[in-house]
Design goal:
Aminopeptidase, six-stranded mixed sheet, 31% helix
Length: 153
């Protein structure tokens, strides 16, 4: 998946780079409403940015990073092929409602088509009703439950 741009609004969707780590860190902390250990975040980001099954994209406008989406891929036996899962997705609150999320999702959809995914999946917290509606409008089906068991070291 190469670089895309939408000339009408000047938003560029591109692969994230190591230089985007600080923007992504701020986005993920805002998304999770917490402060993530910066050293652990940086180590994971640098590992994933160069790991072929992980795909990071950012939205940039006027040289400023304003959104982020990640997609992790794996070959699953029960699907009989490659499945992508959106893990993190964030658009700055002051830029929401302007189609930037749709553009980021379109970049992942293009990747899914290019890489011949059999499914693209996403999990979101039940309290994020606007997010659920966003995905449903993008033809995602509410078909599964995700159960989580916290494991604390």
């Amino acid at each position: 998946m190469g670089t895309q741009s939408t000339p009408a609004d000047g938003v560029l969707i591109r692969r994230a780079t190591a230089a985007d780590a600080d923007f992504v860190y701020a986005f993920i902390c805002a998304l999770e409403d917490t402060t993530i250990d910066p050293g652990r975040f940086q180590a994971i980001y640098q590992l994933n940015i160069n790991f072929p099954p992980v795909h990071y994209f950012v939205a940039e406008q006027a040289g400023e990073v304003i959104g982020f989406i990640s997609c992790h891929t794996q070959h699953l036996l029960h699907h009989g092929g490659k499945v992508g899962e959106i893990q993190e997705f964030f658009v700055r609150p002051d830029r929401r409602g302007k189609g930037i999320g749709r553009q980021l999702l379109a970049a992942v959809m293009a990747l899914a088509t290019e890489k011949k995914f059999v499914n693209l999946e996403v999990t979101t917290n039940q309290k994020r009703q606007d997010t659920i509606r966003f995905y449903e409008r993008a033809s995602f089906l509410l078909s599964h439950y995700k159960l989580v068991k916290p494991i604390r070291p």
